[in-house]
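User: Can you write out an input/output pair for a complex, sequences first and structure second?

Assistant: Here is one pair. Inputs:
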Amino acid sequence: MNALFKALNDPTRRAILERLRAGPATAGAIAEQFQFSAPTISHHLDLLRQAELVTSQKQGQFVVYTLNMTVFDELLGWLYQFKS
Amino acid sequence: MNALFKALNDPTRRAILERLRAGPATAGAIAEQFQFSAPTISHHLDLLRQAELVTSQKQGQFVVYTLNMTVFDELLGWLYQFKS
DNA sequence: ATTTTATTTAGACATTTGCCTAAACATTGA
DNA sequence: TCAATGTTTAGGCAAATGTCTAAATAAAAT
């Protein structure tokens, strides 16, 4: 839960998640959309992975990142306790 | 949206929200439940108020904090885009 | 009036965060 | 094998964060 909220508490990381809604993408393709350096984006991706918001698979020299929507359910569950 | 995620990115603040599910409470009553100093809790309450997750009304020398569930809908809306 | 009680504001300090550049690692292609 | 490409790791730095104590503010009680 901590890692989840931490990962979401950054506009760049939230934008990465929104980008991945369109489908999996390589680290490089993701990095192209932002003005930050590749290492910076790599670090953001690492935090998203720690929160299990994304998964990564190595494909040759590329690393493909994919949204993991499973974790959203955990978050929704936490939020729903406030809806009653 | 930024203030919202920022406010949620702290276990003490999330615990305060959960405390307020049981009903409104004064700053002092909230602070009693934690090991932190009153100023620290006051600061957390300030961040929750900035995110509009809580409202506060002064009642005599007390300040009563109340959950504001309205903002949760905004968050649910953001999450929902990932569910399809 | 003065003191007590409730809360916030101010200022300091250590830790965490987000960014960078340089270097390392891993895979592909000449 | 050597060079090019894609990505991560390492290390450094400024800004933000979470905590504290001391002081200020405001209302209540004596």
